[in-house]
Amino acid sequence: MERRSVLLLAAVVVVAALAGSVGAACPSGFQPLPYGACVKLWSWDNPNNPSWDIASEACKKEGGQLISLDTPEKMQQFSTHVFGVGDPWRSYFYCVGATKTESGWRWLNGAELSSRSYMWYPGDPDGIYTQAHIVSYSNHPRHYISPGNDCTAAACETNQI
After folding, report:
1. Is 86 in contact with 80 (CB distance < 8 Å)?
2. How far is the C-alpha of 29 from the C-alpha of 63, rounded, in Å?
3. How much is the pLDDT for 89?
4. Contact 114/106 with Cβ under 8 angstroms?
5. What one-character DSSP code corresponds to residue 148?
6. Domain ranges of the chain
């Protein structure tokens, strides 16, 4: 029985050490998300919100790209992270890595974004914009994708875990 306790304790220590090393593997300023990416949130103190292109370039300078929230699980984990950080982060419009191509919407990681996805803000996507941002709905801890090329913040990701 004593040997089992020692082995169990050793396993817990190893798991805790591995969990701590995941966060340490993210580049400076980035935080780990459960799905295996590191994320950095940016905001601007500029009354003229930067464009999607400016946000994309800022992410590239940090060694990443605008975040691809290509599954409902990733969207939920991102939303949980943003709402956990608190105000003012939860109310920003985040430029994200979704663009409209000739064949439809795609994430920067290459995944398709169906125009019928329930991750879109109700009534979207419209036919005007070719990039997207995400917005929260009535300060509820859930984000929706919405076409738009301006943002009050950006979400950059890197897979350097």
Report:
1. no
2. 12
3. 85
4. no
5. -
6. 2-158
Do residues 79 and 142 touch, judged by C-beta distance below 8 A?
A: yes
Question: Which CATH architecture group holds 2-158?
Answer: Roll (3.10)
The alpha helices in 25-71, defined as continuous H runs, are 52-61
Which residues of the chain register pLDDT less than 50? 1, 3-23
Q: How far apart are CA 161 and CA 156, in angstroms?
A: 14
- Look at residue 86 in the predicted model and tell me its pLDDT: 83
Assign residue 79 a region (left: φ > 0; alpha: ψ between -120 and 50; beta: otherwise). Answer: alpha
- In angstroms, rounded to a whole number, what is the distance separating the alpha carbons of residues 19 and 65? 24
Beta bridge pairs of residue 131:
99
Furthest-apart CA atoms within the chain: distance in Å = 67
Q: Where are the beta strands (DSSP E) in the chain?
A: 31-32, 38-43, 65-66, 94-101, 104-107, 112-113, 131-137, 140-147, 153-158
Cβ 94 vs Cβ 151: under 8 Å:
yes
